[in-house]
Design goal:
The complex is a heterodimer of chains A (306) and B (187). With 306 residues, chain A is of the alpha/beta class. Chain A has 9 helices and 12 strands. Chain B contains 9 helices and 5 strands, in the order ααααβαββαααββα. Chain B has 187 residues and is an alpha+beta fold. The chains are: A alpha/beta (306), B alpha+beta (187).
């Protein structure tokens, strides 16, 4: 349920104009007044345009594929606190064949959702023959954000496609039958205000949880930019502040939180050079090797293996 | 500017088209593939003249073969494949209804797409066309165009097209050339 913000949370945002790579600090956009009404997810933009609530689109009949029966996954402990593991440690962890299978089973019916950096992980998995990689499902779009996750489906939306159509996450995630969701947001949000972005995360998750009761939630911290490569509001100070705030919310709500940012950092709060593919913030295959190891370690932790 | 590479089998294709073999499709294997335009193409072992039935039995180009030719012709950015599960989840395409397909997406910082889907039944063409138009629609939103500023023109000039039971979408600076290759392969 969306919390009413009538006690004073009116947020001034610049117009939702761009995503990664945009120097939003220099952009003269229209102010956006964020006024979240209780019971709805409505944004009223400064130009008067209403963003939500909206009627759900009539679902297109989805292609039903008879699923292959899978064993019930090993029961996992609830998420607790932040998972933060150094790269060297990740690389040193060894799993038995039985443990590997349990980890794969952990990721049954799991969807990852987020922005272009997560799209990179999707592409990494698409090329991998690893059975765990093949198991993961993705709902990711370039420039996706906590803000535009609430935009009504239409010409202006960039929701990830599911079965050929755009749906808000709280529709597509249940349609996929997901039991676990991993969220990677923030990079495209911090420009509009770090605290605003922190506040939006639980709103989105609550909306997903309403539609998919009992879904297990894990947040992956927003990763950093290369040192000195920040653009406007997309900078490492904002990202670090965002991650700290979100980690607290996750701890309060019992959601998992994976500190990918510092695992991939250079030790000084920047994306390490060997993990950066474009001199900005997108990541290399070497970085996604680390993501892969982190996902295994996180599952092992939840399963009590590690 | 197109970066053309000399392709041995294109030369062979020219030979086969010139030769009196009755085939409508360039050969890609054996002696015929290496024949030069001035050489006589070898006849089949039984010396029987090729007939229309022989031509009909030849398999049409698959989506992968067309994509391979595209890759041989143009230097594409790093592209990532979608498998049966991927095309179902992302695009709602049922692999059971497809003769052959290639659905390639560029890395996350680029909008390039090479989608070629050859359907078994013409009745499914319209549905796939709609779904590919949704892909293009998502990429055509202002947020996406702002995200891919160097490719905004490429995205807005792209369109979903059909040829028989084949539905295709090329989002690329080489889209026109890709279409030529596809249409040549399908004719």
């Amino acid at each position: 349920m969306v919390r009413k913000t009538g006690l004073g949370l009116l947020l001034l945002l610049t117009a939702l104009l761009g995503g990664c790579g945009k120097d939003t600090g220099d952009k003269a956009g229209q102010p956006v007044v964020l006024d979240i009404q209780e019971g709805t997810y409505a944004f009223v933009r400064g130009d008067g345009e209403k963003v939500g609530p909206w009627p759900s689109p009539t679902p297109t009949p989805v292609v039903v594929v008879t699923p292959t029966p899978v064993p019930e996954p090993e029961p996992a402990a609830p998420a607790q606190g932040t998972t933060s593991i150094a790269v060297d440690e990740l690389r040193a962890i060894q799993y038995s064949a039985e443990e590997e299978q349990k980890i794969q089973d952990f990721y049954e019916n799991t969807v990852f959702t987020g922005d272009s950096v997560l799209l990179g992980f999707r592409n990494y998995c698409a090329r991998s023959g690893d059975p765990l990689c093949k198991k993961l499902e993705f709902l990711a779009s370039g420039s996706y954000s906590l803000h535009n996750a609430f935009v009504e489906v239409g010409e202006k939306s960039i929701h990830p496609l599911y079965q050929g159509q755009q749906y808000p996450l709280w529709e597509s995630i249940p349609m996929m039958g997901a039991k676990r969701v991993f969220l990677f947001f923030g990079i495209n949000d911090v420009s509009w205000g770090v605290q605003d972005a922190i506040n939006l995360y639980p709103l989105l998750i609550e909306r997903i949880q309403e539609a998919a009761p009992g879904i297990d939630v894990t947040i992956i911290s927003a990763t950093y930019t290369l040192a000195g490569a920040g653009k406007g509001g997309i900078n490492n100070a904002n990202l670090a502040e965002f991650n700290e705030g979100v980690a607290k919310v996750a701890a309060e709500r019992g959601w998992g939180f994976i500190d990918m940012a510092n695992t991939l950092s250079d030790g000084n709060g920047n994306l390490a050079p060997q993990y950066c593919s474009d001199s900005f913030l997108h990541e290399t295959s070497e970085a996604y090797d680390v993501w892969y190891l982190m996902m295994k370690a996180y599952a092992a932790e939840r399963l009590g293996i590690r | 500017m197109k970066m053309r590479k000399v392709s041995g089998w294109i030369a062979a294709a020219a030979v086969c088209l010139l030769a009196a073999c009755g085939s409508e499709k360039p050969q890609t294997e054996g002696a015929k593939a290496t024949a030069t335009p001035t050489q006589q193409v070898q006849q089949p072992a039984d010396d029987a003249a090729p007939t229309e039935a022989d031509a009909v039995e030849e398999e049409a180009a698959t989506a992968q073969e067309i994509y391979d030719e595209i890759c041989a012709e143009y230097s594409l950015p790093e592209m990532y494949p979608q498998d049966d599960n991927g095309i179902l989840n992302a695009y709602g395409l049922d692999a059971a209804k497809i003769e052959s397909y290639v659905c390639m997406e560029a890395a996350e910082t680029r909008a390039d797409r090479v989608f070629i889907v050859m359907l078994k039944d013409a009745a499914d063409v319209a549905d796939v066309e709609t779904k590919f138009n949704n892909v293009l629609g998502q990429l055509s939103s202002q947020d996406s165009l702002d995200y891919y500023p160097d490719q905004a023109d490429v995205i807005t000039s792209a369109s979903v097209k059909t040829k028989g039971n084949t539905v295709y979408l090329f989002i690329s600076e080489y889209a026109d050339g890709m279409e030529e290759i596809l249409l040549d392969a399908l004719n």
